[in-house]
Amino acid sequence: MSIKKIRMGMIGGGKGAFIGEVHRMAAALDGGIEFCCGALSADPDKAVTSGEALSLPADRIYGSYQEMILSESQLPDHQRIHFISIVTPNFAHFEPAMMALENGFHVVLEKPISFSLEEALLLQEKVKQTGLLICLTHTYSGYPMVIQARQLIADGKLGKIRKIMVEYPQGWLSTRIENDTPLAAWRTDPEKAGQSGCMGDIGTHAAHLAEYVSGLKITKLCADLHVFVDGRRLEDDGNILLRFDNDARGVLSASQVAAGEENALKLRIYGEHGGIEWNQQEPNTLLVKWLDAPVQIYRAGQGYLADAAKSNIRLPAGHPEGYIEAFANIYRNFSATLQHMSNGQEPDANMQDFPTVEDGVRGMQFIDTVLHSSRSDQKWTDF
Amino acid sequence: MSIKKIRMGMIGGGKGAFIGEVHRMAAALDGGIEFCCGALSADPDKAVTSGEALSLPADRIYGSYQEMILSESQLPDHQRIHFISIVTPNFAHFEPAMMALENGFHVVLEKPISFSLEEALLLQEKVKQTGLLICLTHTYSGYPMVIQARQLIADGKLGKIRKIMVEYPQGWLSTRIENDTPLAAWRTDPEKAGQSGCMGDIGTHAAHLAEYVSGLKITKLCADLHVFVDGRRLEDDGNILLRFDNDARGVLSASQVAAGEENALKLRIYGEHGGIEWNQQEPNTLLVKWLDAPVQIYRAGQGYLADAAKSNIRLPAGHPEGYIEAFANIYRNFSATLQHMSNGQEPDANMQDFPTVEDGVRGMQFIDTVLHSSRSDQKWTDF
Amino acid sequence: MSIKKIRMGMIGGGKGAFIGEVHRMAAALDGGIEFCCGALSADPDKAVTSGEALSLPADRIYGSYQEMILSESQLPDHQRIHFISIVTPNFAHFEPAMMALENGFHVVLEKPISFSLEEALLLQEKVKQTGLLICLTHTYSGYPMVIQARQLIADGKLGKIRKIMVEYPQGWLSTRIENDTPLAAWRTDPEKAGQSGCMGDIGTHAAHLAEYVSGLKITKLCADLHVFVDGRRLEDDGNILLRFDNDARGVLSASQVAAGEENALKLRIYGEHGGIEWNQQEPNTLLVKWLDAPVQIYRAGQGYLADAAKSNIRLPAGHPEGYIEAFANIYRNFSATLQHMSNGQEPDANMQDFPTVEDGVRGMQFIDTVLHSSRSDQKWTDF
Amino acid sequence: MSIKKIRMGMIGGGKGAFIGEVHRMAAALDGGIEFCCGALSADPDKAVTSGEALSLPADRIYGSYQEMILSESQLPDHQRIHFISIVTPNFAHFEPAMMALENGFHVVLEKPISFSLEEALLLQEKVKQTGLLICLTHTYSGYPMVIQARQLIADGKLGKIRKIMVEYPQGWLSTRIENDTPLAAWRTDPEKAGQSGCMGDIGTHAAHLAEYVSGLKITKLCADLHVFVDGRRLEDDGNILLRFDNDARGVLSASQVAAGEENALKLRIYGEHGGIEWNQQEPNTLLVKWLDAPVQIYRAGQGYLADAAKSNIRLPAGHPEGYIEAFANIYRNFSATLQHMSNGQEPDANMQDFPTVEDGVRGMQFIDTVLHSSRSDQKWTDF
């Protein structure tokens, strides 16, 4: 009999965590994933109370990720989880991910994939060895209108791509809130977040989005990073000139101190015949601009969309889907792929459209390259 | 020990149904509701295959709603479902709802609550008798920025309300698709939808929204309904002049033949000092207009919102929530209320903010009044 | 030799007047009209100082309109003005207009054309007798994207028109400013404005726009007018159900007490195949909506526009034109028509696209019908 | 007696010219400037027919700018023009401007002020010597909401400025239209436009706007320019990292090959407490963003604006003004300044708010610095 529900465990995401809750909602939304067990906090007591609050069965609430991985690997096939979502801060990605892979579990990881590029390369190696999957939650590539944009470009509708402008302004770190706000504390702490602040946290999303939609690769860049808030240890703003492998030019700008901005990730790509514009805060709309014809407003849920976009939409046009649904698309595609693999079927191309360990390695390389460029007097640093 | 998860059964919503799937996603999103059983189709075979596809346990997939209600009522307390979501077409609301109430189950119902006003009044009576709850899924009042608007008005920020403009243009029935499209077929069939098309389907949402946000009641109205598509049996468009109990004036316009529109429910309310504007297609934004000061853009997720709005938001500002989340708010508030009732606690005011049987009765009265007015030569019909 | 510049005189529009200044800017913009003389105020002293401030030659600054009309009619052909712009309050339209026509001058008039329907009919009669022109400044039909919308509909692109929604919310009369504000004082005074406030002032614009763009005529209506501000003598708000001569339905809503609104005239028209949406506050954009294709954003200045629109645009796309330019289009078309007439040429169709005495008569009939309907208990009043 | 109208002559701007016509409309709009004479083309025949078409008196239609300057300088005071607008291509700015200044005429010049920085410095020197004025038509700083933004920042409302993002995407040169399109031909020809294409034409506007509104100066930059269209001789795209004198960071991006864009100049500035956003294509709106309060929509024509903005607005809120009006503000302020100077009065600060020769020199330095940076391997080039 074929597997119906894919079973998930979680590491991190206990009380007060933001992104762990998002992962759980995303996994729950479509009814294809069962949340079975968790090691929800590094603090064993908090792990237990968090697990109880989520109605996990008592015997599958674990006090540590090691315990969880070992115990779950002993369970019979029809009970054992298929994958583990790791939603800890960056510094605590690598070890649980590696242990999960070594014990036969697929992994879902928050971006950036690891604390350092070295760790990312080791994870990549392990994925190759084991044949298991890492799914990286670059949420924004789960939005259907992003996928529609990618399809238009892949189909050549815009002609050769010339210019890419991607920006990600946030304002929430405009003042020194890291002393009071746990979410801000680890993100601004080089011991926990890694060497980069703004670029690691959101710049990587912007870079991934630009490459994902355009189908191009950044080949060199010129970065100007800065810490605006006194006493902060990691950069909270940066602007980067980009060059792509087809000689397209671009700009990536990201900020955590753009006071008054929320989460205004925006992508514009221009080719010979037209351009696209997508704004995460109104994600169900894609502007498609043409050289000599009216701009078109593509909208989620419409019949004229590409199949690749449609397969990531749940509702008719005019019924807005948002961030959780985009997140859920990644979970849904990942879990459908696992289901097909379990059943010995070949997953289709749309299902397999989720970010993987390769995107994770590329993200870490991006961070390294940006940091190198920012410290350099030379204009261009190769990526 | 207190109950943790609230248990749900479903009537209707089998393969191919749209709204049943939305109910399931909404119920699943927040992890507090367990979907336990279903009589998912009037066709027993389809009921079974639909239940299997959703991984329901075989012994709780029922071939008819009668069987489900009777069987579930025999189960022990810790297994028995707490409520039943009825997601059938309008003509099939009343009987299962009545039987559910008679057997001790709370009910979630799609709007309009019933096929006729008489049925609605009988349900209201039964709710009074049993002390059970009917939750009516007027989704749009589940959006946090709608709740924020209501709060601003309740707090007197706009002064006395003078004018209300509510519109609900859709275009999907611009041609005679009812022959090919099941969703359209029953909505345009008086045997299944009731005496009203456009007004029953979406006009009731608009009227509910206007009254919910303004805190006012429509006291009389003047309606002009029309069937534009040849051969259609129920009105597909209507415009209505409104008068409210504080002498405010208004217009309600709804259409299913506004070609090119999606689901563009929009509410504007003006008082002595300012106005609000909310558009369902960009639901995380609320415009607040002032007589002598700049318009303000209120946004979901911001710290300055009222608690009543905040308690219906899951994500930080700039991470869009949509239709499913609004729907889930209604499920979450309803199930939290049930949980509190089960545990002998008093639910708080925000939890109880979901539409009930009273809203259902009012909706049916609205439909009756509109139909009467549309046939009348008199300007005003009392509501 | 052919005439190059058309010569204009003005009645009203002295110091402190708003609309007179707009007329002068509109006439000056394109360099084809020479402002030669004026009787700029009913107060002879103010008439003189106003004329001097505008650098009019001393001998063509007149103390009364009668003096101006008589004196100018004595001047030789190459000096005498061709037309007179009358920019006085409504009650002072008729007499100068009639005298101007009787003395051989074409006339530009602000809407509403007169104080009463009777006056309008007399002006219409006089126009027929004399062969002279009245140009009525329904500014909004001078916007190029309005003309583009009209053309799309005339060309049948939207199919048969079904629904028209036109709204004109303003908020400036939300409080009783008429005691301090001359602009408000006469508009709310039945001795000066006529029997209607909001509908005469802005409702007529909305009705004209709806008919102009759709090419349809209102055949019956049902109006609900109201005075919201205590002590005000003319209605400051109204909502009207409309029926058109092709059986299309519609709503017209106008308000001067929509607190926080500026001048938000907006028109939406839906036909069988699609719809248009135009908003005066962003006048260079026209949304064109289609049943099964993406919404298109038509923009002023683009090459794909109709000739009728292009001939009313001065700048390339992306260089916004506004209210004064729309006003100037009416002046430009009117003066080009006069020029052609003077030179014995036939003006082309686009030139002749300015509102005339017929529109003025229709506007007065609209006001009368609305007032009658608002007082009636019958649903429909024939127009 | 004090002068009432300021008298203008024009060099360039004959038939088919775009910007000359804009200058004439801008000068005519407010009635304070009289267009008296012209040398409208380098081709004497075209100069004459162009002058006749504009109804200039025959004796003040000149066949060359030299003739015009000499003849006009012989006229008596009450006839002689006060200033000359030079609207020729860049290569033909310097000589007529210099000759005009030498003969006692003030000058209005299109940007960039000259063909080379050397010429700009010579003009600056001549202005100092003569006490005459050069007014440079950086149109965009004539928009009232730009001035409002400048005022908010000058008043410290945003706190210390941290980040400036200015972009100017156009798409009109996406293909090689320069062979057919005179407007494109000279702009892409280094013999006529100078060493820079995109940056000289529109990048200078963006840089001026950023500095004008922020009150800051660019101190170093890092530019990446590119020619996208095969065979084009001047860059048609560029991205630039910016640093400002208070250590703020920024990005300037300009393009003539952003296919589907019109004239989408946009400025965003972020400070410690909030940010502003202004978009030229919707110029009557200014978004003002705050760290912990709702975004505000400032609108032209509202009573809450600063006096500096109000003095550049003609119409009540909701009556859109556009590009010509912004242009006219520069003409109005410049001519009011001349009027005051002629009458021996001190012009007030708002009147004097028009770009001058200093802005022209800075613009040429900007172009030189950008070109140098683009060719350099070093990251930063001092400005």
Automatic annotation (TrEMBL), chains A, B, C, D:
Residues 147-277 form the GFO/IDH/MocA-like oxidoreductase domain. SUPFAM superfamilies: Glyceraldehyde-3-phosphate dehydrogenase-like, C-terminal domain, NAD(P)-binding Rossmann-fold domains. One of its GO terms (molecular function) is nucleotide binding. Residues 6-134 form the Gfo/Idh/MocA-like oxidoreductase N-terminal domain. It holds the Pfam family GFO_IDH_MocA_C3. This is Oxidoreductase domain-containing protein. It comes from Sphingobacterium deserti.
